Amino acid sequence: MKSRWQQLWRQLFLFGMLALFLAGCGRENLSALTPQGPVAEMQFSLMKLSALIMIGVFVVVILIFTYVLIRYRKRPGQDGIPKQVEGNHKLEILWTVIPFLLLIVMAVPTVTIAFDLSKEYTNKDALVVKVTAHQFWWEFEYPDLGISTAQDLYIPTGKKIQFDLTSADVMHAFWIPALGGKMDTNPGDSNKMWLQAEKPGIYYGKCAELCGASHALMDFKVNALEPAKFDEWATAMKSAESTPATASAQQGQQIFQKSCLGCHAIGAEGGKLAPNLTNFADRQRVAGILENNPENLDKWLADPQAVKPGNLMPNLNLKPEDRKALVDYMSTLKVYQP
């Protein structure tokens, strides 16, 4: 029996150390523990405060528990019943007041920050981005700029971004760990939040609400650009044009206009049921998960359900030569590379 318990404790220790080690392996662009903006900084300060209080309580309880075990353990030759203590008013008051005070210490900054972040940000200089969650992709619309895109969110650094969040189907949750969050996106309703990136870079976003078969694959990228480069991107998006140079790409354009334009848009032309593909070739990922290269794009076009189960894109059963032409055309959909 002793050997069995020793083995169990060794396993628990091993898994505990493994969990501690893995906690330090997160990337700064996908970790709430390396905040990259003021909202994330405020939320991280609450995490640190809560962790310190919980660690302190844990240590004190373990020390008292260990002291009691040693001090009042049964000793050799001790056969009588020890003195029975039925209550201690001072201790009862003490262990009621201390947790109450600790809760106040945690509650005051938590409530203060929560109310600050819940305020609708109406600064006239804020950039407004309307976010619509779909199964299993993200749509980003810039009402003041007349721009619509998908999967890759572009924002300027050093500026507050007001997000108007909604959903086209089921409940999702918008979360950019390094910048702050998260906030639910609900069908028929709009939630508001604001975030800000302090330095240029690529940050990773996730859906943080179980929403279907490919919930775990519902990722997006945030491209934080210096203000001047963001303005260049916005200008390029508004004047984007694609002119296929090769015969294969021209054939692909015809296939796209015939088979894809009903759901997908390029610029202002096309449908809105599926991701806008104006700057598709600038994106790092196909369908938000595969590296953006011709092989993976062909794989996606051949069988979308095999790549992202449950998504709404149908299999068009294109011939290999038609898929190649479509891949060649979509590879020309470039707008701006900062």
TrEMBL record:
Keywords: Copper, Electron transport, Heme, Iron, Membrane, Metal-binding, Respiratory chain, Translocase, Transmembrane, Transmembrane helix, Transport. Belongs to the cytochrome c oxidase subunit 2 family. Its main location: membrane. It comes from Brevibacillus fulvus. Binds a copper A center. It is a multi-pass membrane protein. PANTHER family: CYTOCHROME C OXIDASE SUBUNIT 2, CYTOCHROME C OXIDASE, SUBUNIT II. It is an enzyme of class 7 (translocase). Its cofactor is Cu cation. Subunits I and II form the functional core of the enzyme complex. Electrons originating in cytochrome c are transferred via heme a and Cu(A) to the binuclear center formed by heme a3 and Cu(B). Residues 124-236 form the Cytochrome oxidase subunit II copper A binding domain. The keyword Ubl conjugation does not apply. PROSITE patterns: COX2, COX2_CUA, COX2_TM, CYTC, PROKAR_LIPOPROTEIN. GO terms for biological process: ATP synthesis coupled electron transport. This is Cytochrome c oxidase subunit 2. It holds the Pfam family COX2.
